[in-house]
Structure formats: structure tokens, C-alpha cells
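Researcher: We plan to redesign the surface later, but first we want a full-length starting point. C-alpha cells attached.
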């Protein structure tokens, strides 16, 4: 498995991507093509309390056969056997 930590403009913490094959198309922000046992872990963060402190708790995990991850927007185009779960 290959793994990347991907910073995005849409999340305070980086997104973790993993797959058997990873290919980046162009310079940042790029489209990252993922193939084979794809796993994309996105942290769940919300502003809470005084001063809008960022509170991150758990992840949303997408698993698929293949996916394209858009770094600039955080958009994911998943294909094949796709599941989405919440993990602590």
C-alpha cells in the first residue's frame, strides 16, 4: 500500500489517502488518481466554543476500488465497491 498525507484548502487537518497505485496529475492543487483498495480518511472538524476553537473528533472513511481526489476542492469521485463509514 502507498500512503499520502494531503493538505487541502477545505479542511484544517490533512486528508490521508492510501491505495495500491497513486498518481498525481500536475502541480498542486492537482487531481490524485487512486487505484486498488482505496482508503480516504477525512478528519471531522467543527468550530466550537469561544473564539471558534477548532475541535476535531474522528474521521469519515471512504473505501473504494478506485477514486480521483481533487486537492483544491476536496471533491472525491469514487468508483467500484464504495463504502463510507465514521471512525473514532
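Model: Full-length starting sequence:
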Amino acid at each position: 500500500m502507498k500512503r499520502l498525507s494531503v493538505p487541502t484548502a477545505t479542511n484544517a487537518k490533512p486528508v490521508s489517502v492510501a491505495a495500491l497505485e497513486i498518481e498525481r496529475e500536475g502541480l498542486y492543487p492537482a487531481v490524485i488518481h487512486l487505484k486498488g483498495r482505496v482508503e480516504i480518511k477525512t478528519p471531522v472538524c467543527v468550530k466550537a466554543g469561544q473564539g471558534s476553537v477548532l475541535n476535531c473528533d474522528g474521521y469519515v472513511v471512504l473505501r473504494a476500488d478506485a477514486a480521483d481526489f481533487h486537492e483544491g476542492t476536496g471533491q472525491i469521485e469514487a468508483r467500484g465497491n464504495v463504502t463510507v463509514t465514521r471512525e473514532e
